[in-house]
Amino acid sequence: MYASAASDLQLPSVFDPALRYLLISFPLDKLWALSLFAATRWKQRVAAITQLEQIRVLLVQGTTDQFTKAESYRKWCEELDRSSNGVTVSTIEGADHFWSTPQQRDHLVAAVKRWLQ
């Protein structure tokens, strides 16, 4: 699992056709701090991944994320959708960055299960 935006991402030269990326509560508005001011580079890398046909990407975020505004996610997802082979976006109403309640976590798990099928 790739859990830190502070580490460098190395893409393999040959991709597994079943390779998938799951971005949960991607810290879009705080990426500048987590990536040592290299947020643009990280956003470009996510965009590059989404352009590869054999890669599937799921972006799951809540509407009350403490670190990224819902409007920021919406705009970014529109950008990714225009330039990609398809990103599945699942927005969970009322969910926060930490998926604090059992109901929020249930919605998260359900979104991932739907995407994997």
How would you characterize the overall build of this protein?
- Residues 53-117 form the Peptidase S9 prolyl oligopeptidase catalytic domain.
- This is Peptidase S9 prolyl oligopeptidase catalytic domain-containing protein.
- InterPro entries: AB_hydrolase_fold (IPR029058), Peptidase_S9_cat (IPR001375).
- One of its GO terms (molecular function) is serine-type peptidase activity.
- This protein has 117 residues and is α/β, with parallel strands linked by helices.
- The chain has one domain (20-116): 3-Layer(aba) Sandwich (Rossmann fold), CATH 3.40.50.1820.
- It contains four helices and three strands, in the order βααβαβα.
**Strands in their spatial order, largest beta sheet:** 1-2-3
CATH architecture grouping: 3-Layer(aba) Sandwich
Q: Kindly report the average pLDDT value.
A: 85
Q: Please indicate the count of domains.
A: 1
Query: How many beta-strand elements?
Result: 3
CATH superfamily membership, which one?
Alpha/Beta hydrolase fold, catalytic domain
Gyration radius (Cα, Å) is 14 Å
> Regions with pLDDT < 50 over 5+ consecutive residues?
none
- Strand content is 15-25%
User: Which structural class do you get from the secondary structure elements?
Assistant: alpha/beta
CATH topology: Rossmann fold
| Helix content, binned percent | 25-40%
Shape call: globular
- SSE order, one letter for each helix or strand: EHHEHEH
CATH class: Alpha Beta
Largest sheet: 3 strands, parallel
Distance between the ends = 20 Å
Helix tally equals 4
GO molecular function: serine-type peptidase activity
Protein name: Peptidase S9 prolyl oligopeptidase catalytic domain-containing protein
Organism: Jaminaea rosea
Pfam families: Peptidase_S9
